[in-house]
Amino acid sequence: MKKPWIKLLFLIICLPILSYISLRVGVIAVSHEDVMTFQADGSSQAMIALADNRIPRTVVALLVGSVLGLAGLIFQLVTRNPLASPDILAVNAGASLAIVLVTLFGFSSIASFTTASLIGAFVAGVIVYLLSANGGNVMYMTLAGASLAALFSSFTQSIIAYEEGALDEVLFWLTGSVAGRSLTLVETLLPWMAAAVILVLLLSKELETLSLGDQVARSLGQNVGIIKFVAVTLAVVLSAFGVALAGPIAFVGLLAPHLAKYLFGTAFFARLAGSALIGSVLLLAADILGRIILFPREVTVGVVLAVIGGAFFIYLVSVRQGVFKS
Amino acid sequence: MKTYRFRKGPVSFTLRKREIELALLLVVGLLVSIYFGLAIGDTFLSPASLAALFIGAGDAFEQLVVFEFRMPRVLMAITAGASLAVSGHLLQLTIKNELASPEIFGIVGGAGVATATFFTVFSDERTNQLSVPLAYIPIASFLGAIVVGMFLFYLLKRGVPPVRLALVGIGISIFSQGIVQFMMLASNVYRKNDIQQWLTGTVYAATWNQLKIMVPFVLLFLLAAFLIERHVRPLHISEATATSIGVPVRGIQRGTLLLSCLLAGIGVAFVGAIGFVGLMAPHIARQGLKLPYIWATLLVGATIVVLADVLARTIFYPYELRTGVMTAVIGAPYFFYLLRRMMKGSMR
């Protein structure tokens, strides 16, 4: 498998297969016929399960996975930090804190959720950008991001501790889950997400140049400052949409770009598209796994990914020493 | 700089005037915050009436309030603050990075996982009560911290450089967050609340019995920290320097790592994950006061937690905030100050 296109095709084929599995697996039995003869207004238990739960969560997993994968790749490129991702760099934590805050003040509409998520992610993103713009040390950036995330989440925890009743819903959302999201939410956000993703793909050439390093990029005539700014903005927007839809989901943003790099090497566009596809595959697979491990109980996808991803991260920084030179 | 030298037989030391003054200042600061800790609450006590209580005068009710409720709480704040601060101090010296803290190293996360698991597993489904005494919780928390400590220790022994251990720690904290969240979703609403309490951390429920168990351990660990200190400081300059003046670098690194895990473990065992003390205190002592010593960190850490508790009790009086909320509130501006310094590039 030398050609990147074949690998991309393989990933693309994975999506419908996983989606099909995702539609069928769960507490309520859904047969092959049910999936094939699905009608939105069906009244059987399987139809209702499909319409209210399985289809929305599958769509959400696909979307969120791809935006997180892209955001992670951009963060890693711009900050030149192989450990950068929306979760490590506190972007997720910032968005979560903002969402909990607006919920505290009684807003619960989709619009307020998304706006808050955007603002929170931007605040964290700006800090990260400033840290990296100065040619910041990778180690410091990672530690600073992690400490910032710890700070944000300790505020989030404090707020929840005092408003448990009102925020029980938020607590569930905070663990990161693709379940229980309505399709209307997806419909509202879809155009925006699509626009951001397309922009990123259009910027593929510029990002590739940037990945060669600031100096090379500059000598090739690129305005590095502007490209970096645009790229980080896009990455922040993408992660904010991800958080607004599914809560702070760890590690997809870290893992997907690494796997893509491993699969596609230097073929940049394939790496970019691959990150998004791998993100979707990962999130969907983790969600299916979460439904199976403790059947009939469901483990939210955020938990599954934190555990798997945590182990991977520890492996990455302790065993694979070459990945990260400090 | 004015210094005082003392030399007699094998004993010799140098005292700098500035350091003595600052030390006195820190002690006075701690004493003042202890006074506030003892005096503020539903019944406010003037310094005179507090002093009267200490010599046995004063009415029985005030005696009860001060000696049974406020005193253990203040002492707990001091003990926990001191151990977390010194833990952070040792970690920062070992990896030569000012952002190190017990939280970053995942030690607190490990304690959290153990605690959350304990609460979830030992909860009676029918009565919603804990099926084992609450007094066992600190043991679980402490063991959780030690397990993470052992893992880090193993990696260090395998040749993973200390700096990288901080990254491993970040992984461990995210990993443990996942498990804690899972435990919270799996347990009933009472246990969920218990776990949440632990995660924020509070000295609210401190008792004399807890202190009797905790203090000897903390004193022992602190003593060890003081003994190891003079070997760690050359390490902060560079490993080569330390080796050349005869410091057994590997051994000292392992020793400090183990010691900071023990300190952080005992620090959070009884009060929960009170955050940011381990990050702030050593930094304030070293950068703010130019006192890169354990004793200074210890005093700063103790003062921070006592003051945080006082604030937590008074800000929304009669409601109490948790101590951990206040340390986060104090920690936030400080943290941004740190970040600003990083951006200026003065911290590489």
From TrEMBL, chain B:
Localization = Cell membrane
Identify the stretch annotated as signal peptide in this record.
none
- Domain of life of the organism encoding this protein: Bacteria
Task: Write down the Pfam families for this protein, in alphabetical order.
Answer: FecCD
Q: Which residues cross the membrane?
A: 20-38, 74-92, 104-122, 134-156, 168-190, 211-228, 257-281, 293-315
What InterPro entries does the entry give? ABC_BtuC-like (IPR037294), ABC_transptr_permease_BtuC (IPR000522)
**Main subcellular localisation:** membrane
| Keyword annotations | Cell membrane, Membrane, Transmembrane, Transmembrane helix, Transport
Membrane topology of this protein: Multi-pass membrane protein
Name the family the entry cites. Answer: Belongs to the binding-protein-dependent transport system permease family. FecCD subfamily.
> Which protein are we looking at?
Iron ABC transporter permease
